[in-house]
Design goal:
Three copies of one chain form a homotrimer.
Chain A lengths: L14 H19 L3 H5 L2 E8 L5 E3 L1 H11 L6 E15 L2 E17 L4 E3 L3 E10 L2 E11 L9 H6 L1
Parallel strand pairs in A: 1-7
Antiparallel strand pairs in A: 1-2, 3-4, 4-5, 4-6, 6-7
Chain lengths: 160, 160, 160
């Protein structure tokens, strides 16, 4: 708000970077949705970290793999798909190989009869790093979307 | 149809423009979905216009803000998320700072228990303008998707 | 897996190609969702092929149009929308005018009251070709997503 209007507020996202990041997630989500646990873990750095909605924290591929294996039974009869939208990409101004992202996530679960159920919606914030030309996830924080208390003026508050 | 096949029917959308427009919407939707009403209004030009599904018309940021404030009670216990897809971008051939867009919209409402409900689907048509390097919405027309009467041949009509 | 980590596993997708393919699908889906059957068929090559989930195969625009006309009655009172995500684009290394793609698909059906129903989720694999500067679909294979048998280690198998 305090910056002059002519100053871009955010670093520009090139089309090439946009395509690169979208393609990274397209591959990563195919792995998790096909229950390719090791393949999914390989899209993280060795000591990558995931903070799940609710606060559970997994650090390192081994812990990630163990956690996902433990959850496998719940996917026995459903096909899960993670849908993303509204990807924001913020390259680190000091290091083009570090990229902060955030995106909406909707998770469908289709059972054998074709019936689709939905998990609550989530917003995810990642830090990606480019190593040897490939993107990897360094960290991921998943938050379940919850109702917000809107910032309203005093008239609205007193009227409520 | 009447143009030769070698003539592109539409102006080419560069990757950079695609990323710019997607990023604009990713930020704009975060504002509306977090009930940041003033922040959302700031993504429109001062006298921007929205025509809602059903025909209600809002003109100018002040009217937009008042309308959104009046609607706040219905979001007290839900997290709303707008999901976009199939974005079409048509830069004005005469003015690269005027861009017509259209996109599909699906709106989820997640309650405190995590249950997801869906509003009807919509198709939105915007005119965006670039001012001081930043995109802003000049106008928006929102239409609820409704069944179409397919254009069928005479055999199909008489058989129906 | 056997390649050194420094070798990209996949050809790079430029931002321009990403935008071109997304724009192609945005137009193609508007045609199918508006029940513009001939217009939809025109986005395929003359002898294009579609393999539907379940195995039904349509070859050529005429067969495609006949099949879609036969299905029209089921869309009499619903607005259908195809939502895509996680688009993968793989240009043919030997021919830049041949592009393999794959994407997630979610199909909504909104009735006249605004109620939204969902078809099972699908994954689609296309081959696109560029002719006279325009993309066309050469072939499409649609698969309904189904539960997968995860590849688990021996401990997990014996414990199951």
């Amino acid at each position: 708000m305090s910056r002059p209007a002519s100053t871009p507020r955010h670093p520009v996202v090139t089309g090439d970077l946009y395509a690169e990041v979208r393609t990274f997630y397209a591959r990563q989500m195919r792995r998790v949705d096909s229950l390719d646990i090791e393949g999914f873990a390989d899209t993280f750095v060795e000591d990558g970290e995931v903070v799940h909605a609710g606060g559970r924290r997994q650090r390192g591929r081994a812990e990630m793999i163990a956690g996902m294996r433990a959850a496998l039974p719940r996917y026995r009869d459903i096909a899960v798909r993670h849908w993303f939208d509204h990807l924001l990409i913020e390259p680190d101004p000091a290091d083009p190989d570090v990229i902060r992202t955030s995106y909406y996530t909707l998770v469908t679960q289709t059972d054998r009869s074709g019936k689709v159920c939905f998990q609550p919606t989530f917003t995810v914030a990642d830090v990606l790093v480019r190593r040897d030309g490939r993107l990897l996830t360094l960290s991921r924080v998943i938050e379940q979307d919850s109702p917000v208390e809107p910032a309203v003026g005093s008239e609205e508050r007193s009227a409520a």
